[in-house]
Amino acid sequence: MRPLKFLLQKELRQIFRDPAIIRILFIMPMVQLLILPLAADYEIKNINLGLVDHDHSEYSRKLVNKIVASGYFRLKDNSALFKQGMHAIEQDKTDLILEIPAHFERDLIKDNAATLLIAVNAINGVKAGLGGAYIQGIIQEYNKDIRDQWVSEPHFDPQPVIEVTYSDWFNPNMNYRVFMVPGILVMLVTIIGSSIASNNIVREKEMGTIEQINVSPISKAHFILGKLIPFWMLALAVLTVGLTLARVIYGILPLGHYITIYIFAALYLLAILGLGLLLSTYAQTQQQSMLVSFFITMIFNLLSGLFTPIESMPGWAQVITRFNPVSYFIEVMRMVILKGSGLADIRYHILAMIGFAVFFNTWAILNYRKRSG
Amino acid sequence: MVQFLIFVKKEWLHIWRDRRTLFILIWMPVVQILLYGFALTNEVKNSNIAILDQSKDEASTMISNEIAASRYFNVMYYLKSSKEIESTFKQGKIRMVVIFPRNFRYDLLHNNHAQIQLIADASDPNTANTLTNYASSIINDYQQTLHPTENLPYTINTQVRMLYNPELKGAYNFVPGVMALVLMLVCAMMTSISIVREKEMGTMEVILVSPLKPFRIIIAKTIPYLLVSLLNIATILLLSVFALDVPIVGSLPLLIAESILFTITSLSVGILISNTAKTQQTAQFTSMMSLFLPTLLFSGFLFPVENMPIPLQVISNIVPAKWYYIIVKSIMIKGLGFSSIWKETLILIGMTVVLLGISIKNFKIRLA
Questions:
Q1: Complex ipTM, two decimals?
Q2: Is residue A67 part of a domain?
Q3: Where are the alpha helices (DSSP H) in A218-335?
Q4: Smallest CA–CA separation between B2 and chain A, in Å?
Q5: Which domain, by its residues, includes A107?
Q6: Closest partner residue to B44 among A169, A309, A331, by Cβ?
Q7: How far is the C-alpha of A82 from the C-alpha of A88, rounded, in Å?
Q8: pLDDT tens digits, residue range B206-253?
Q9: What mean pLDDT is reported for chain A?
């Protein structure tokens, strides 16, 4: 065990004597954690509305007022012609045009029907779909108001009605940040862990200091462990700071236990750092290892369910997510923090993570050669 | 000039002989485009749900079957009691539970009023909203079959036109974003690392004593990366047209010219980073944290910028990728000409000039 102790001492000194790295390791993720959840907001609001009103009637004004009063839309442009409205869309000044035809009010009252034209900038499909749905919902409501005004309905409805009641569990305020912050924390810990680990051995190779280690009486396993443990502690420290920030700033308190998170995080970091070290044993230059680890973490993060739900992915992509440690950790974080799941609920996740950790680290130890060239 | 070309050749050989790096540089955009194009979608479908049917009558079975047949839902469990709801949620297996109370059909037909309860896992608010909307519209449809409605008076019809992207494909949004991301990455991160590498290895000294002007050396270092990024632009455009069916509506030469401009902007960011960083590791972290994540966040292709708090919207203006993203969207998808994007182009040119100016001013001929 003595050689391991000395190795740890060496690694820790190396880390703490590079203030730039320490700074980056702690400050950068904190800044990210402060900014990212504010930015990563999928909730669609503030849709910019362009209006082309050919009618200028009381009804058309009421409709526009109702749309703006809903809070989802902001009236940004008021054009006389559809072509001008289109120009505003091209300039990204507006997202959606509502064209009210001439004689809208007259047609509606006299002919019992009138048609509105809505044109949506659909480059961002999700936003367009939701924006279109919102405005149609408001128009329908407006339609109902008008109908109520003209037709008096019988009070008793003889037709059978199914009432649907909703309950939103685990996040009753529908707060998007509670959902994103744990996931973003995982992403940050992953990026930091895998990139420092993947750089490390190759840095010694590039600087030539690996020669000294190769001729020292250190076993391969000790060498890998000596690299693994300091980074493992560092990454857990980053996680701790992150969880503290999540609690202080976003008020995110896990329903489950912190211990559950830490037990899983400890295993997860072993796996991710093992992967980084494995890449490091293969790479010849730091540039190479950085790019490879960046490439892999990018795929891992994209296919982790952080930004888009895993169920929506096609079958082949879902298969990949099962071999992706990041997706397990994100799921576990969300389960423990939002739903209060305990160790028993995440037992399969734990087993899978042990598998990853053993697999990557064994491979890294086997692949590390004490010979150069 | 000859000396300059020799330096470019040296740099080119560095890249060319590092086959692994080259391999990734070339394949990265391909993988990204394929992932964004085919795997990543916010569309909600095949969500795992559970049904708790306490009445098991004709009506509840009909609705359950309708829900199971929909492509949005995948009924994973039929629960037996309400006690199972919480534990099934906690194991993370389902997103929603549909609960039919006892005597559902009886209530519906005799009291004209029956209830269905939907419990959604709202940890992901958007998915929860979408799922409950889908489920209630299925239930509504069933209700409609009970009593066909006559034509209602005073009806406002709406005609919705989806401009530019009638099928609401995600790729229209992602392709310009991936272009910005890949170019930023290849140019800024790779150049900064390759310059700092020379410092770290000590070979910078050799270069600095050569007869070539120091700043030309740096320019020579960036040219091979410029070539690689041109190759990447070509790959992305070919893939988006032929694999994702995203057309290039506007002018291709204009698009390429703007892409070269953005590449130069990214290269100057890379040079600036390499000026300040002492080790490759620092260079990498700086580019990752100050470039990659902001590009991902603030260019507007993952998250709409207009949703962000005002300070962040202001910050987003200094991210070059945001302007490039607007340019690519305008040319490629909206088919607009230079007259609509001259402002964005000027901003990019301005950024490049400022960045290069700072780098030239700070460029150190002497080693510390």
A1: 0.72
A2: yes
A3: 220-250, 258-282, 286-302, 315-322, 325-334
A4: 28
A5: 47-150
A6: A309
A7: 10
A8: 877 777 777 777 888 888 888 888 888 899 889 888 888 888 888 899
A9: 83
